[in-house]
């Protein structure tokens, strides 16, 4: 029998006052009193028969705080309103005295074998609330999750909370080693009264003895004795109407009336710049608590915050693993622990390894056959991917094994329209250790081939599918795709498969804005395949993809990559591929202002792509030609090319691409002096971008629209649009951000010319640093802004203000732009945005 604790409870007339919970009840209905008022009442009850000075009450109810005496009066007023004026007597100029008549509590003896004090749980507030709510509504609740996730700690904490009710006994039983329901009954009898276990012959006898007592029984470790626990739960709940059961298990009991609460590892989500920020991440907070408990001198340095977060991610947020590692931190440090974890040494420390061994032993042969093969996936995967590596088992057995592994909390299920699955890193490492070297290579190859097929199908579908929809369907596979690429390009992998994976996945890296990572995989795949007899078309696809990723950052290398792709496509006798590579090469030349060469290249591409169904490539070719013709002043030709691009993009059904073409048409109209037409087309593009939920492109569309509205004289409309665009453009931090800031400066130059000049100084300095040339549209804004500032400020003052702004950070520039917009809101004159949208397309 562990330590027994009794709950403080008092009865005054019809009221029951539960001191530990700071609650008052009239019958079963709770009386609405603030917790401080209840604590004050309890303090008076426990000092009944004497007057308690106001100062003493403040010390008892608000220890360590400075509180005005008015707070005491307020709480006493609340007590008198709810419980009656005679409950508390005022003794003039001295204090207060309990005035009620204390009755004898009718509550039965409350028993528990929980420790008197439990460590505070970290990051489990939501789970605790959910669990308490479930126990209020249901009599059998099971917490289930993988070994080491903290089920027992959560159950103990909820049990301690339930004790606060004052009329509920809470008994904790470790049932892992019991053999049947009667053995569990004997343990409960011994917990209720030491020595009673020897006299209880059966579960039925215990049920009769408990009768109508209010009781919560915690059955811990039920995965080893599922049938016995389920049988005991049925008997107790049927025979004892006020009893409840909270079970912990890696597997649900599957008993009648059971409600389950799956427990996930502690969250590691979020980023932090300082140690203080890191403590807001539950997994990191637990690790630091354990480190500080092991050595009170341990302090997390801000420079080590990324290491702490990374270490917790390596440990999957599992509390048991984090506690094991946290205690070693003061001695070993983050770097050594990180290296050991990579070798799976600390994960195999006895408590965690034992937990995984137990889980493995509970699996059927079917589950043991499938789990190691699923270790091929570095991230989440779907049933189709599981079938690709589980080819040694039947479809029926695979479905059964996945269900079993999820039931045993070895496989996390990500709910959605189509369920996905994920192994924790610790579980994956344990499962991989069950594979031999040959089997591991086999499943890795199967996984890589599966993702090569998937990316090939997706790459071919990309041409006629909206990009957002396309990306969202594939992004869940990113981690597993990374794992497949890493295996394919590593020594002993499959270089040809690596080329296929890298070349087919480029659109995913591009649309997800992961340019650096995409370039890494492309270059690594090319290096791994060097010297091998690679398929020319597959290698060409990789070079073309590399050109796309390098186009903005390194146009010279992009041109070389596109040229290499063209030659390889010719070698492969693939004219459509040659055309697609020439499009990229031509657009790169156009962006570099090599207009004559760009026109020739793009016209060759257009001819090769004439019979093509590659709608997005065709539209890029036409848009590239429009850029060339626009810069050459051939407006009519540019219009025709953009209309052809719009027609091709409409075939894709992609609202973002369609809107981008409409925006290009608007810019062309603006450069031709047709400002009203530019506004109308730009409004249509912005509205389409809103429905497409494309915040990145919406920032661009709004910035363009603000430019045209300002030029049209609609200052109020431009102000509204710029105000909406600023937070979106700030998050981009690119040339669109700089363009918008110049528009804002031009809009408000008369309001605060010095601040407008500082903004111009910041954009000028950024253009110099990045060697960025202003495009014709933004050049118009820039020239007008310089002219206005030169009129408003002296040459010396303008120079000094621009010099001050040149040193600003992005955040300072954004704050200054926001301040400039707030400084004065334009009068609502003229047509203000949003007006009725008119589509000119």
The chain-level structural class is alpha/beta
Instruction: Tell me the β content.
Output: 5-15%
Please tally the helical runs, counting DSSP H or I stretches of 4 or more residues.
39
Distance linking N and C termini:
82 Å
Characterise the protein shown here:
Helix 31 runs antiparallel to helix 32 (675-692), helix 34 runs antiparallel to helix 39 and helix 35 (735-747) packs antiparallel against helix 36 (753-769). With 841 residues, the chain is α/β, with parallel strands linked by helices. The protein has 39 helices and 15 strands. Helices cover 61% and strands 7% of the residues. The strands form four sheets. It has a five-stranded antiparallel sheet with strand order 4-3-2-1-8, covered by helices on one side. It folds into six domains: 9-103, Winged helix-like DNA-binding domain superfamily/Winged helix DNA-binding domain (Arc Repressor Mutant, subunit A, Orthogonal Bundle), CATH 1.10.10; 125-262, Rossmann fold (3-Layer(aba) Sandwich); 275-347; 352-435, Arc Repressor Mutant, subunit A (Orthogonal Bundle); 535-653, Tetratricopeptide repeat domain (Serine Threonine Protein Phosphatase 5, Tetratricopeptide repeat); 674-823, no CATH class. The longest helix has 26 residues, at 437-462.
């Amino acid at each position: 029998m562990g330590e027994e604790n009794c709950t403080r409870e008092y009865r005054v007339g019809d009221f029951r006052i539960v001191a530990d919970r700071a609650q008052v009840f009239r019958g079963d209905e709770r009386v609405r009193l603030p917790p401080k008022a209840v604590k004050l009442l309890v303090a008076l009850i426990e000092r009944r028969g004497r007057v308690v000075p106001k100062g003493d009450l403040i010390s008892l109810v608000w220890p360590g705080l400075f509180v005005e005496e008015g707070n005491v009066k307020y709480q006493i007023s609340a007590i008198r309103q709810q419980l009656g004026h005679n409950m508390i007597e005022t003794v003039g100029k001295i204090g207060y005295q309990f005035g009620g008549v204390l009755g004898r509590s009718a509550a039965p003896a409350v028993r528990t074998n929980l420790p008197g004090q439990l460590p505070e749980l970290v990051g489990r507030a939501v789970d605790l609330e959910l669990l308490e709510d479930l126990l209020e509504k249901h009599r059998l609740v099971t917490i289930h999750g993988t070994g080491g996730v903290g089920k027992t700690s959560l159950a103990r904490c909820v049990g301690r909370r339930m004790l606060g009710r004052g009329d509920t006994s809470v008994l904790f039983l470790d049932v892992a080693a019991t053999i049947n329901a009667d053995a569990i009954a004997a343990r409960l009898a011994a917990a209720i009264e030491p020595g009673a276990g020897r006299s209880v012959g059966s579960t039925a006898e215990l049920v009769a003895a408990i009768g109508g007592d209010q009781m919560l029984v915690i059955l811990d470790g039920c995965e080893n004795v599922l049938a016995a626990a389920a049988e005991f739960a049925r008997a107790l709940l049927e025979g004892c109407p006020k009893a409840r059961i909270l079970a912990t298990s890696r597997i649900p009991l599957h008993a009648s009336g059971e409600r389950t609460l799956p427990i996930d590892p502690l969250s590691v989500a979020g980023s932090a710049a300082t140690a203080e920020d890191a403590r807001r991440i539950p997994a990191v907070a637990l690790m630091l608590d354990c480190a500080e408990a092991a050595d009170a001198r341990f302090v997390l340095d801000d420079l080590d915050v990324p290491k702490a977060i990374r270490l917790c991610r390596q440990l999957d947020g599992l509390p048991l693993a984090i506690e094991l590692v946290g205690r070693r931190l003061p001695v070993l440090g983050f770097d050594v622990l990180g290296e050991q974890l990579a070798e799976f040494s600390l994960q195999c420390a006895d408590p965690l390894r034992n937990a995984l061994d137990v889980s493995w032993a509970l699996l059927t042969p079917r589950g043991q056959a499938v789990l190691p093969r699923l270790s091929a996936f570095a991230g989440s995967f779907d049933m189709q991917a599981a079938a690709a590596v589980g080819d040694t088992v039947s479809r029926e057995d695979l479905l059964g094994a996945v269900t079993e592994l999820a039931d045993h909390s070895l496989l996390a299920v990500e709910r959605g329209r189509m369920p996905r699955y994920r192994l924790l890193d610790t579980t994956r490492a344990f499962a991989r250790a069950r594979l031999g070297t040959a089997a591991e290579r086999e499943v890795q190859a199967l996984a890589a081939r599966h993702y090569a097929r998937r990316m090939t199908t997706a790459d071919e579908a990309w041409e006629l599918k909206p990009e957002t929809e396309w990306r969202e369907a594939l992004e869940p596979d990113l981690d597993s795709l990374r794992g497949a690429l890493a295996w394919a390009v590593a020594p002993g992998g499959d270089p040809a498969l690596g080329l296929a994976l890298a070349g087919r996945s480029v659109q995913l890296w591009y649309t997800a804005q992961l340019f650096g990572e995409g370039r890494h995989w492309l270059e690594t795949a090319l290096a791994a395949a060097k010297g091998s007899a690679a398929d020319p078309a597959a290698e060409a696809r990789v070079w073309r993809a590399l050109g796309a990723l390098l186009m903005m950052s390194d146009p010279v290398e992009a041109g070389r990559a596109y040229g290499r792709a063209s030659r390889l496509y010719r070698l492969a006798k693939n004219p459509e591929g040659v055309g697609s590579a020439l499009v990229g090469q031509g657009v790169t030349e156009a962006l570099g202002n090599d207009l004559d060469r760009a026109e020739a290249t793009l016209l060759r591409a257009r001819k090769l792509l004439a019979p093509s169904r590659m709608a997005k490539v065709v539209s890029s070719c036409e848009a590239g030609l429009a850029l060339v013709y626009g810069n050459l002043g051939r407006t009519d030709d540019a219009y025709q090319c953009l209309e052809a691009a719009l027609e091709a993009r409409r075939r894709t059904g992609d609202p973002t691409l369609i809107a981008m073409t409409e925006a290009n048409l608007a810019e062309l109209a603006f450069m031709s002096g047709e400002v009203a037409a530019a506004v109308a087309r730009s409004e249509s593009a912005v509205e389409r971008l809103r429905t497409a939920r494309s915040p990145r492109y919406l920032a661009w569309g709004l910035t363009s629209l603000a430019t045209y509205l300002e030029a049209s004289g609609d200052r109020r409309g431009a102000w509204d649009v710029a105000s909406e665009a600023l937070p979106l453009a700030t998050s981009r931090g690119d040339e669109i951000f700089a363009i918008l800031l110049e528009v804002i400066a031009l809009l408000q130059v008369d309001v605060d010319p010095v601040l407008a000049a500082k903004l111009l100084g910041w954009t000028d300095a950024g253009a110099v640093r990045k060697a960025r040339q202003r495009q014709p549209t933004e050049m118009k804004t820039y020239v007008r802004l310089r002219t206005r500032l030169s009129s408003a400020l002296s040459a010396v003052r303008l120079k000094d203000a621009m010099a001050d702004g040149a040193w600003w950070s992005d955040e300072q520039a954004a704050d200054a732009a926001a301040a400039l917009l707030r400084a004065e809101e334009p009068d609502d004159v003229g047509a203000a945005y949003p007006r009725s949208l008119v589509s000119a397309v």
